[in-house]
Amino acid sequence: MANTPSITEEFSPKLSPTKHTIMEVVSPKLPLPTKYSIMEEAKANRSQEFSINHDIPPSNLQKTVAELVGTYFLIFAGCAAALVNKVQTLTIVGIAIVWGLVLMAAIYALGHISGAHFNPAVTLALAAARKFSWKLVPMYLLAQLLGATLASLTLRVLFDDQGGIQVTMTQYKNSTSDLEAITWEFIITFILMFNICAVATDQ
Q1: Is the pLDDT of residue 22 over 50?
Q2: Which pLDDT belongs to residue 54?
Q3: Which of 15, 31, 114, 145 could connect to 66 by a Cys-Cys bridge, CB 3.0–4.6 Å?
């Protein structure tokens, strides 16, 4: 009987004596919030709110406005480079670089909203390939045509009667036949759509 442990000893393990009091062992102190922890928590909440808002798809109006703005920037900058070349030598290479840089910037800025078509040929081709809804085609075409028209009107006001610049339309030399012009347009448009379908749709 003397060696038999009591019920209290069996179910109540002994605590090794330490410098801490019983109150400290049973109820450890919780760390007080600091300005850094508060800032991290606020930052996490903002990130969560941003991710929730980011998951909301853009509306059709936002897509249409994005196409209008992107087409405006593209036509304005590209055609302005060609017009400036009439007054100050920019060279064909410089004009091409302007077109490429503006298109790249517009894709980065607006691609996540509308898909960055900025061209009726791109919209129609993607719709024909079933990569774009036909319901949005009229809205996109109207936005692209309106953006290009506004850009042209802006350039007409800015470059009116400067350096012999006149209002004209896209045309080819008299020595070029209609068949040659159509062939060139087909080849260039095919290359454009081939790259877009290969990069944007992985097909």
Answers
A1: no
A2: 58
A3: 114
How far apart, in whole angstroms, are the C-alpha atoms of residue 120 and residue 144?
A: 7
Domain count along the chain: 2
pLDDT at 51: 52
Q: What percentage of the chain has pLDDT greater than the value 70? A: 66
Query: How many other C-beta atoms are found inside a 10 Å radius of the C-beta of residue 155?
Result: 19
Domain that holds residue 117: 62-168
**187 or 171: whose pLDDT is higher?**
187
Q: Looking at residue 92, what is its pLDDT?
A: 84
Q: What is the mean pLDDT of residues 190-195?
A: 88
- How far the first Cα of the chain sits from its last, in Å, is 86
For residues 148 and 186, membership in a common domain is answered with no
User: Which pLDDT belongs to residue 84?
Assistant: 83
The 3-state secondary structure of the chain, one letter per residue: CCCCCCHHHHHCCCCCCCCCCHHHHHCCCCCCCCHHHHHHHHHHHHHHHHHHHHCCCCCHHHHHHHHHHHHHHHHHHHHHHHHHHHHCCCHHHHHHHHHHHHHHHHHHHHHHHHCCCCCHHHHHHHHHCCCCCHHHHHHHHHHHHHHHHHHHHHHHHHCCCCCCCCCCCCCCCCCCCHHHHHHHHHHHHHHHHHHHHHHHCCC
What is the per-residue pLDDT for 85? 78
- In-domain check, residue 195: yes
- CA dist 176 and 49 (Å) reads 59
Domain presence at residue 13:
no
